[in-house]
Structures are given as C-alpha cells and as structure tokens.
Amino acid sequence: MSAPTIRAGVIGATGYTGYELLQLLHRHPQVELAWATSESSAGKRICDLYPSPDETPLIPQQDAKLEGVDVVFLCLPHAASMEAVARVRAAGVRAIDLSADYRLPDAVVYQRWYGHPHTQPECLKEAVYGLCEINRQRIRGAQLVANPGCYPTTINLGLWPLARAGVLEPRIIADSKSGVSGAGRKLRLSSHFVEANENISPYSIGYTHRHIAEMELVLGSYVPDLEITFSPHLLPVNRGILSTIYIDVDPSLDEEDVRRIYAEAYADEPFIHLLPAGQLATLRHTVGSNRCAIALTPLPRPGQWIVTVSEDNLLKGASGQAVQNMNLMFGIPETTGLI
Ligand SMILES: NC(=O)c1ccc[n+]([C@@H]2O[C@H](COP(=O)([O-])OP(=O)(O)OC[C@H]3O[C@@H](n4cnc5c(N)ncnc54)[C@H](OP(=O)(O)O)[C@@H]3O)[C@@H](O)[C@H]2O)c1
Q: What is the rounded average pLDDT of the residues 35-45?
C-alpha cells in the first residue's frame, strides 16, 4: 500500500518561518504542496525573494482554493492570523497556526497579553497547543493546532519533567538569547546589521514579554503560584535560541534522582537530546535540526540547578515543530521529513 499524500497549503510563505516550512514540505515524502500565498509578492516566485532555486509560485490568499487541501499552515503575524485560520476551519480544512493567535485558550488572557480582543472564540475552543512532547494525544485528534512560541518551547521542554513530577519550586528565572531571525523578515531598526552585530541587547524584560503567558499555561498547570522572571536577549547570529534557566527543586532529591526524572520523561523522544552530565547545551547542538538539547547542572547548594536548553527557533521553535504536528495529526511517523 502506498503512503497517503497530504496536500498542504502555506499562507504567508515569504517570511522566515514560511520559507523554512516550504523547504521542509518540499523534502517531505508524503506532502504535495497545493499552493503558497503572499499578498505583497503575489505573482512572484520564492526564488525572486530568496537566494534559492525554489520556484514555488506565490498567489494571493483570495486565490488559494481550500477544496482538495488537507492542511493549511499559517505563517502570519499574530492578529493577522486570527481570521485567516477561521476561514480555513470554516471550509473544514485542518490548520496549523504558527502565530500566537490560538495558543492561549482563554480570550481574556489573550487580550491582556496581546492588547486586542480575540475575534474568533469558536475556533479558539477547538485549538490544541502543539507542544508535541507533552500534548501528543490531543494533537493526534486535533483539527486546529496552535504551534508554540519559540522561547516557551525551550523553557517548557526544559522544565516539564520536573513540573510534571511535582518537584519544581515556583520561582523560575530564565535568561534567553535568540538569533535575529526570531524577529521575522520584516524591516525593523533593531534587526539592522549595525544595530545587532557585535552587540547583545536585552528586550521586553520585567514581566512584559508575551511568551510568559505560554510558560504559565504549560508549567503553571503543574506548579501552583508560578513566578517566572523571563529576560530575552537579541543575539547577533542568524538563528538559534539558548535559554539558561535557574531553578529550585525539592532539596531531598539528589543529582541521580533529578537526572532520572528527565531520562524517564524523555526516554522515547526522538527530538529531545539530553546531554550527559558535565556538558552544556549550545546553539551548535541544535541549529539546522528539529532537536531540543537539554543539559542539567547542579549547584553546590541543595536543590539548586541550572538548566541550559537550545533549539533552532525556525525549526523546533516554529516550522519543524509545525511539521512534527502535521505528522501527528495525519498519523504518520512523527519524525518523517525532519532531522
Ligand atoms: N521567526 C521565528 O523564529 C518564529 C518562531 C516561532 C513563531 N513565529 C511566529 O510565526 C509567524 C511568522 O513569523 P515570521 O518570522 O515568519 O514573520 P515574517 O518573516 O515577518 O513573515 C510574516 C509573513 O506574513 C505576511 N504578512 C505580514 N503582515 C501581514 C498582514 N498584516 N496580513 C497578512 N499577511 C501578512 C508576510 O507576507 P507577504 O507580505 O508576502 O504577504 C510574510 O510572509 C509570526 O506570528 C511569528 O510570531 C516566528
């Protein structure tokens, strides 16, 4: 029996996540690309916009037919994605949204962090948070998957084993650094070469970064009264996120206990790379792959640990995880088309 072909559409294909996703879908043995959209570059091809042989034509959203399409990936900015997802779902087509619009199940919480109301509460109800390692069963039956944010993927995967085991103390300090592609391809002053190069800049510190909501959603469901201090930084590299997380765990656990909790939680996870004692996660462990690397370092004080976590923000932090979600939704091996 031949493998089923999944017909996929990509909305917002000209951005960094859209381009990365197209490259993954072209190589995926069970996907046929139905179309890719752009508003500002409709009529052009991907190779007109990127130094690439990819000749995928770009059409406007209004010409993208949903009949005969099995899944649509949306790679739009938040707010712009909300109604586009609803149109896809109204046609009965499965959707994987890379924006933040469907990640927070509570519309009030969404408005508090994003500053505008959620206009699609019906769709919001059916959205499943697409952090594959912790939500696999629900993703398998989902019609709408909200692909997680890049920073929260590192922090949630980095701490989930301890949170689930009930041994993580509520005070968490996460210092994260992201490559410049994390800000998207649109022009902005902070992404200019002269501003970003040879510099490291903190931004949105002091309980203001919107991704905190996703950390509270995931870790807060296990740890009451969670207190997250999250400090992101812009790092002058193209891609990659490194999070250094300072935590306290139940001081009665020794080093072996803590390492066993992680080893058991991630025993069968193809994309989690648990580093051996003594090693630290770096960008090179993950850039170019869909992996998340996690390393545990005990402090010489009982219960105190530093967790270092890395991922490629455009792969496990965005388009790679989106493909992993698609594989789960369509019941094919989770690693198909990914490294
Ligand atoms: N970059 C990352 O590392 C990363 C990681 C995780 C999640 N995300 C999320 O993924 C989404 C896409 O991110 P990105 O980095 O790919 O962004 P990007 O490079 O800025 O691309 C955004 C895309 O959306 C289209 N677009 C922009 N404004 C629009 C509007 N008002 N209405 C309709 N289309 C619009 C643009 O296409 P045209 O102008 O060609 O139509 C472009 O293709 C965002 O929600 C982002 O937060 C990004």
A: 98
